[in-house]
Automatic annotation (TrEMBL):
A GO BP annotation: phosphorelay signal transduction system
Stretches that traverse the bilayer: none
Modified residues annotated as 4-aspartylphosphate in this record: 56
Coiled coil: none
Keyword Phosphoprotein: yes
Protein's UniProt name: Response regulatory domain-containing protein
Pfam families: Response_reg (PF00072)
Residue span(s) of domain Response regulatory: 7-123
Amino acid sequence: MAKAKHTILVVEDDPLLLDLYRLKLRAEGFAVVTATNGREGVEAALVSKPELILLDILMPEVDGYAALKKLKSDERTKKIPVIIFSNLSQSWEIEKGLKLGADDFVIKTSLTPAQLAEKVKEYF
């Protein structure tokens, strides 16, 4: 089997959505690493050194904003692009994510997994 083109870390606490995104991104040729909360996401980023992170906001243990802060303050992970994908859609929430260093903010309910995969491809 050919080596996957790029490694994506998906941090999502909903197992059904996590599976859906993983399957779609793998079908598009990406290597996919997953985590189910912000703490696991930060650890997975340090270990797997992904080229892009898809980060949910509302999660148990450590939320996406706190994880983003940690990722952007660590020399080893601060240059990895982060796309927040959340159902939070208030302008102040989007602004907060971008101010903390996210490269993009995508509303989950407005994108199908295929559209999300297309968005990911824009980064490569």
